Amino acid sequence: MIKIILPTLLIVLAINTNAQTPGALDNEKLLDLMQTQRYQEAALFIKSVYHDDVSDVKALSRLAYCNYMAGNLAEAERNYTALYDKDTLNNTLLSNLANVQLKRGNYHQATYYLKKLVLRDTLNFTVYKQLGQIGEITGDSNTVGYLSRANHLNSYDADVAYDLANLYIQTKQFGKADTVLSNAIKADTTNLLLIRTKAKLAYSRDSWTELVQLCTKLIKAGDGSMIVINWLGEGYYYIKQYKKCIETFQSIEKLGLEKESSLYFTAKSYKNLNDHSNAVKYFRKTIQSSISPNVGNYYTEAGDSQEKLKQATGALNSYLKSLQFEENAFTYYMIANLYDQALKNKQKAAIYFRKFLKTAVSQNAKQRPYIVYAETRLREITK
């Protein structure tokens, strides 16, 4: 997430509340409005004095700031642009214009202003940081370069370290990611965001012992997120602590949060402990978890389309395949009807009409017409 630096208010903080020029702003009133964060009122107050012709630099600066803080970003942009036209060498105004554009989501224009700033100040950490964060959103090819420069200027900044390390991990530059994270963690040894990223790095490069240590530290610090627990379970498996692996994954299974991979590692752990009974149990759970609960419905839908194409045998195979995944009353009905109408097999049709009636719910209003038909047709074909 891009952190937007509040615009610097040129001169306004230096308001002299004791001096009052006839016809000018009531500085004391303006200061009171700003200190109580009534920025919209402050902006309107300034305009009430200058109307639409605010050419005085001090007044225009105050107006720009108040409009920005009040969320009147289009007005703030116009004000800051007018100020910049009067002083194109003012870096603070460039920064303020960039911040306005960031808040408006205009990343292209914000980048334009920030790049101008970088040309004037090559040691500006904040600008490189903002360019890097914008680059992550826009896919700028220079993103790593911006963040790397920011990290070089301040290796302790956690936000930059996090963003840069994740980019290095994505591109499998694990050594660079480790250096960035290690330096930042030195400055903040309890930063969970950085420690979690270090755990992600350990997972990515199969450093299982380190992964277990980092995940244990995260959990003790209160980070019991699913990703951390899953990393810990896998880490235990790969360092051959199978009982701990099972305990870890069963802790999330009790919450109903298991997934295919956690069930698989539990099964493998039981197998490596020669507990083959539980291994089989969990391999079956793994298989069940890997199958979409909608597969049966997909086969039924495919069978219905095959019927419409007059592909009776193919439709039958799809319906029967559907029943391997889920017993569904309507699928029985479709099979019965297929045997009855297309395949002309009354004996088979009767079997499946009976299965349909046995599993159908008569109270279900949607199924009631099919139940009535099935009962009627069953009587007809079994006379």
How are the elements arranged and paired?
Blueprint: H1 27-35, H2 39-50, H3 57-69, H4 73-86, H5 91-103, H6 107-120, H7 125-138, H8 143-153, H9 158-170, H10 174-187, H11 192-204, H12 208-220, H13 226-238, H14 242-253, H15 260-272, H16 276-290, H17 295-308, H18 312-325, H19 329-341, H20 346-359, H21 368-381
Report on the architecture of this protein:
This protein has 21 helices and no strands. The chain has four domains: 87 residues, no CATH class; 83 residues, Tetratricopeptide repeat domain (Serine Threonine Protein Phosphatase 5, Tetratricopeptide repeat); 85 residues, Serine Threonine Protein Phosphatase 5, Tetratricopeptide repeat (Alpha Horseshoe); 87 residues, Tetratricopeptide repeat domain (Serine Threonine Protein Phosphatase 5, Tetratricopeptide repeat, Alpha Horseshoe). The chain is elongated, with a radius of gyration of 34 Å. Helix content is 72%, strand content 0%. With 383 residues, the protein is an all-alpha fold.
Low-confidence stretches: 9-22
Share in β-strands:
under 5%
Distance between the termini: 73 Å
Report the biggest beta sheet as strand number plus sense, adding barrel if it closes.
Answer: none
Q: What is the structural class?
A: mainly alpha
Helix count equals 21
- Reading the helices and strands in chain order gives HHHHHHHHHHHHHHHHHHHHH
Q: Whole-number radius of gyration?
A: 34 Å
Oligomer: single chain
The dominant shape is: elongated
Number of domains: 4
Number of strands: 0
Q: Percentage of helical residues? A: over 70%
Organism: Arcticibacter tournemirensis
Keywords: Signal
Pfam family, one: TPR_8
GO biological process, one term: cell division
